[in-house]
Amino acid sequence: MRIKLGLARRRWLVALVTLAAGLSLFVAACGGDDDDNGNFGGGKATVKASKCGDGTGKKATDEPIKLGAIATKQPGTDFSEIPRMAQAYFECVNDNGGIKGRPIQLVIETEQTDPGQIASLAKKLVETEKVLGIVGNTSLIECTVNHKYYEQQGIYMIGSGIAPECYSTSNIAAVNMGPRYSSDGAVQYAIRAGAKKIAFDQSNVPGTEYIEGGPKLVAQDAGVDIETFKDNVPIQDANSVALKLVQSAGQDGAVVLNFTPPEALKILKAAQSQGLQDRVKTWACSTPCNTDFIADALGPQWDGKLGVNAELNLVSADAPDTNLYRQVQKKYAPDIPLGSFSQMGFTEANIATHALLDMKGDYTLESVNEAFEGVKDFKTDILCNPWYFGDAPLHIPNNVDRTVVPKGAVMAQKEGCFPISAVDPAIGQVRKVEKEDPSLIGK
Amino acid sequence: MSAAGAHGVAPSWWSPGRLDQRTRIQLVVIAALLAFTLFALPARMSAYWTDVATAVAIFSVVSLGLATLMGRVGLVSLGQISVLALGAWVAARLAFATSLPFPVVLIAAGLITMVLGTLVGLPALRLSGLYLALITLMLAGAIGVVLASTDFPNGAGGFLGHSESSFGNPGVRRPSIATSDSAYFRYTIVVSALMFLLALVHVRAKPGRAWAAIRQSEPAALAAGVNITLYKIWAFALASFMTGVAGGLLAGSVGHLFTTQFPTSQNIVLLAVVLMGGIYSLWGAVVAGMLIKLLPALLDNWGLPADLLTILFGVGVLQVLTTAPAGLVAQVPRDLGRLGSALAGLVRGGRGPEHGAATSEEPAAPAGRERPPPVSQRGAE
Amino acid sequence: MPSWDEFQPFIVTGLALGGVYALSGVGMVVLYQTTGVLNLAFGAVGAMGALISWQLINEAGWPDWPAYLVCIGFGAVVTLVYGVVFGPPLAGRDPLIKATATLGLALILLGAMSWIWSDKARSLDLPTTQEEAFEVGTIFVNWTQVIALALGVVVTAWTTAFLRFTKLGAAMRALATDREITATLGVPVRRVEASAWLVSGLLSGVSGLLLSNLVGLDATTLTFLVISSLAAALIARLRSLGVTLLAGLAVGVVNALATPINSISEYRDMAPFVLATIALLWLSRRREISFARAGGSL
User: Fold this and answer.
1) Touching check for B51 and chain A: CB below 8 Å?
2) Given an 8 Å threshold on Cβ–Cβ distance, is B168 in contact with A120?
3) Per the CB < 8 Å rule, is A148 touching B170?
4) Residues of chain B neighbouring A212 (CB-CB closer than 8 A)
5) Cβ contact (<8 Å) for C119 and A76?
6) Count of domains in chain A?
7) A354 inside domain
8) What CATH number is attached to the domain comprising A223?
9) Does residue A441 sit within a domain?
């Protein structure tokens, strides 16, 4: 009797696990989790797309050139599509001759905001995998944890920045502007739209004081009152949050958000379901909101009402690099949605590829990183101004950008390229660097 | 440390009598393992695996704290990760604000965390079982919210020691004798071994016996004159001390601390791995440390998603609670032993594996009231 | 300090939030009252159901209502299977063990959800959320919020009456207290238990749908919402459904009212935890509260 029960129970356990697994597989098979990216605004591509790398059409088969990337991937925060898009671009390059016959291999590591893990992954990439350069990093805290290590190893990292150290240290340069300067841009838009008070809210992750510092300076300089908040994510009480922000901003004010798309969506939808979206002059958002998915999820009531600071050009733009970006996404990474995240990955890979192609001599850790540091006047229609790395104590090469608004389920441009206010001291410093060496931006 | 015991010289407050054959073998094995880990292993590990191994050691100590509470006293705390965060916070603050030698920082962090843990545990000790576990979860949630606002010290001044204009700082300092990663790994192993020794000493001495009595039956223990409140507080204090020291080691290992590395959900994962490792044996804590820090690194190496681990831990919890309450550390040797005898039986042409599979179910069947091994046996583990 | 006018709308949002906590809390206590198991996987089950519904609607093109039914059905099936498979072997154990086992289920579901649906911005739009039901003061309340609150109240009232006045209810209460003795009284233990689990599963499926709308469709939030909802259940000492409901509402209102007060706003998420701790310690000041069973241990 005892033995029989035992066996029966074991069978049940197996049955349960199989049931769960089977159900999951069934659901996953039923269409999988690919977002439908067919419609990006219907922009027709008339301009010829750029080429991937040399554009020879021949597959690269020599010894690979290894590069590495680290990205945050955990419930609530997933930046892994940025290096994956970079990888997609590299695959296109590899199908088109690679780097003088050598394919690029990108080793992607994902982390869960554990500093110990992040530090060890950098060492893994450099010392075990022996990558020659690091391209495509996007993480909440990686720059903080690893920047000293990069300085020690002589690595010049090209990535998408979030933490303050991504913009304030010598060995890291980002293609995006980061939450602080993008929020500056959003506040600048709100002020131009006539807001007399700003209610600025952001997610309570490391670095909030640093991020809100910029908007505070920009608002004060324009003589506009500003109240800053922070909320724990994931947000559980979006209704209260939306209400609090609307109350603070008032009828003549603006609500400026700095959140990842899912959280920003929660607040915006909560505002809508309580009929609050017209209770303020305008809404604004830093760059993460720049995705057609948000425009689609918000619906027509929000057309023109949400000004999103766009660090990168519209995905629907008709221009060489953007057209290539869409082609690469369609062919090599159809499961990655079009949006600013994947644009960043594409651009980082683009920069790295051209730096490698322009190099002369052997490919070693030293020579590759010297090439990365030496990038200047890199023109691309995805960015407003030419990108550069250069030798400077801090790097904010992307400091001019646009504003977009939702319009009929996609994002559309509202304001063309405008410079981020130099009232923010780091921006002021960077402008000085550009002035002293105009060749960085091709002047 | 263990060498003294292996030669039969036992301090008077240790267990009475000579150490038996089994214990002596165990001590030799432990000494050999320690020697290997300290001297041979670091040279063979790359920088990446050294970091992983350091994390395994640190989380073994954290698991030890929880396992002691659960296995010896029968109390479940779902707030140990928050205690770890507190320990790390205190250690970081002291390391930045003072120039105390690192061992002093560790001990101070342990002591302060012990006081905090005990203070928090005091009123909760009137509760037991499910209520205690849930209230520790509530407290963990509360601490998490506070930490999200106060952040961790990063070298600035003021009570909280956190300022966002001091970025680019070098991080929490390491002991002067162990600044390199390999050296710090060895340092961590030594401190962890000391923590395990501390736990062992407690278990084999009076507290261990009192805890065992409380676990079996509180009314009986009370009748026998055991001061239940005192020994429960002692258990909490010990667990908090060890976890606080582990927090100090954690602060020194990477140097930068973030609230995101101590999510409230991690408390549940810790519970899962401690159960899976085995709460009745000190070795179980080592297994738990490996489950929580080594497995993710291995999975990453093999290109598998970390989510598989979450599923595995969930299955592990169910398995342990329904069929193998002593955890992997007892189950695996037992299963291997059964497999061995089953194979031997096959070779001899006798009964097959069926016998083995059936008998491994026995502990669970009778109303599921698994009793832990008796006191004297447990002490040896 | 904000003015009364500014506080007023927060009472409404607080009640809406409290409805969320109350619904989850009541869902967990109902099962506890009928089987002695505190199902900490309540949120995870609902979350997975909601995600499956999302998948069916957005990726496989199903119409709305069949997809919602799948969610509710999924909740019922998973909870029932768990209850039938893992209920009996753990039946005689400490409630702590039974609750810990449900954590195992929660981890399995959480891992599966993270794996299949990696984090992206998703939303499940229930038809009841589109329409604004009525205006309370200056803000609109939508039907989903009303339904959540109403459901919590209905479940509380019905279950309390059921447990007190019906034979099956009495059998369930007996079962939760001592399974073995109840079995000897001729009560069809397994069937009664199974029906309790089934009802709880249906409730978690429905909650999953409502909560995905009220809080957001993401696996982690919905799974760990139970921690905040537990506060309401704890205040009621897992005994009274009515107190759970009221406690849930109270926690929600306190949380919301703290929002506009700048000095404590960022600590407002502590509200459930602090309230639960205070309540438990106050209630236990005279006597020891425990479920200690003779010889029962891990």
Assistant:
1) yes
2) no
3) yes
4) none
5) yes
6) 2
7) yes
8) 3.40.50.2300
9) no
* A residues 291-330 closer than 8 Å to C (CB): 291, 293-294, 297
pLDDT, tens digit, 9 for 90 and up, residues C78-125: 999 999 999 888 887 888 889 999 999 999 999 999 888 876 667 777
- Percent composition of chain C: helix, strand, coil (DSSP 3-state, to 5): 75, 5, 20
Q: Are A208 and A168 contained in the same domain?
A: no
Pairing of strands C132-136, A225-231: unpaired
The whole-model pTM stands at 0.84
Asked if residue A145 lies in contact with residue A117, where contact means CB atoms within 8 angstroms, the answer is no
Do both A301 and A214 map to the same domain? yes
Tokens of C143: 């039907």
Instruction: Tell me whether B62 touches chain A (CB under 8 Å).
Output: no
Q: What subunits touch chain A, counting only 3 or more CB pairs under 8 A?
A: B, C
Percent of chain B clearing pLDDT 70 (strictly above)? 83
Query: What digits encode the pLDDT tens for the residues C215-241?
Result: 778 888 888 888 888 889 988 888 888
Residues of A in contact with C261 (CB under 8 A): none
All structural domains of chain B = 45-325+363-380 (1.10.3470)
Nearest chain A CA: its distance from B222 CA (Å):
36
ipTM confidence: 0.86
Q: Which residues, in sequence order, are CB contacts of C28 under 8 Å at separation 6+?
A: C38, C39, C40, C42, C226, C229, C230, C233
Same domain? For A346 and A249 the reply is no
> A140: nearest CA in chain B?
B260
On chain B, the residues whose CB falls within 8 A of the CB of C91 are 368
Domains in chain C, ordered, with CATH? 4-282 (1.10.3470)
Distance CA A110, CA B300 (A): 8
Residues A222 and A169 in one domain: no
Report the length, in residues, of chain B: 381
Q: What is d(CA A349, CA A330) in angstroms, rounded to the nearest whole number?
A: 17
Q: Write down which residue in A295, A310, A325 finishes a domain.
A: A310
Farthest-apart Cα atoms in chain B, separation: 76
Q: Are B345 and B351 in contact (CB under 8 A)?
A: yes
B365 to chain A, closest Cα gap in Å: 6
Chain B positions touching A128 (Cβ under 8 A) are: 46-48
User: Which pLDDT tens digit goes with each residue over A303-343?
Assistant: 989 999 999 998 888 999 999 999 999 999 998 988 888 99
Structural domain harbouring A203: 179-310
